[in-house]
Design goal:
Structural class: mainly alpha
Number of strands: 5
Distance between the termini: 97 Å
Strand order of the largest sheet: 1-3-2
Helix content: 55-70%
Radius of gyration: 28 Å
Length: 258
């Protein structure tokens, strides 16, 4: 009799624990839902305030590339893309921000920059292998006529233009080589050794095979192979007049010229 009571108490305790677990899970889900609704409301209010701010400071956003870049970063931080038709949450209040802030040709401004980036990268691909410094690209793009009604083009504008090209394919992307941001206009990925050599050229101006062997402790076949691969891809140039052949990056040469 006592044994049966013991089993009954055990089963009852198990049922009570199961009930409590279900209760806590339901309560937790309700809290998460409440917090999510609260966050959505706060985000919606912040987006509305950001929209008002954009309209009030439209001239400064239009004329000052630094201010425009900071504004764009602030938008991105809360999930609003000022270049897109709506924000990330699907709120139509974000629709047409660029047109309202930068004029009727706001999106055309970004499209013109993107088209110029494509033109510049394609025109220079044979000399740089499809890898161009962001600053060099910005300077070349800014030389184009009719960009956004003579608006000054910033590096951030070029970055966002490149981002807008990603859905179209073609290999356009931003990569970092050493301390520099580069625009890659070919789908080929750089190997670790290739990135290391390009970074060394960025710092030293040029490299030789013996410099790679001495400073990186590479065996000769490894140094020769990466140099040959970079040459084949037109990512570096060779100066054969030096005592030992020197290898230069077209991006670094143009940077010094500018």
């Amino acid at each position: 009799m006592s044994a049966r009571r013991g089993r009954g108490v055990g089963l009852s305790a198990f049922q009570n624990r199961s009930s409590l677990t279900t209760h806590y899970a339901t309560h937790g889900a309700a809290l998460r839902s409440s917090h999510l609704d609260s966050l959505k409301t706060q985000l919606s209010v912040f987006q509305s305030l950001l929209h008002t701010f954009a309209l009030q400071h439209s001239e400064k956003i239009k004329q000052d590339p630094t201010f425009r870049a900071e504004f764009a970063r602030m938008c991105t931080a809360i999930g609003v893309d000022p270049l897109a038709a709506s924000n990330a949450a699907g709120n139509k209040k974000g629709s047409g921000w660029l047109a309202k802030v930068m004029g009727a040709d706001g999106r055309e401004f970004v499209m013109q920059i993107a088209l110029r980036v494509v033109e510049v990268c394609r025109a220079t691909r044979e000399e740089n292998g499809g890898l161009m410094g962001l600053e060099e690209c910005k300077i070349r793009v800014a030389r184009g006529k009719g960009i956004g009604g003579a608006m000054e083009v910033s590096g951030d504008d070029v970055l966002r233009a490149v981002e807008s090209l990603k859905p179209l394919g073609g290999g356009f992307s931003i990569i970092r080589v050493g301390s520099k941001e580069m625009i890659r206009s070919v789908p080929k990925e750089l190997s670790t050794d290739q990135s290391t050599v390009l970074e060394a050229i960025q710092i030293l101006g040029y490299v030789t095979v013996s410099m790679l062997e001495d400073n990186l402790n590479w065996e000769n076949p490894r140094a020769e192979t990466v140099i040959e691969d970079l040459l084949a891809a037109s990512l570096i140039w060779v100066d054969t007049k030096a005592n030992e052949w020197e290898y230069w990056s077209p991006a670094s040469i143009h940077e010094f010229d500018d």
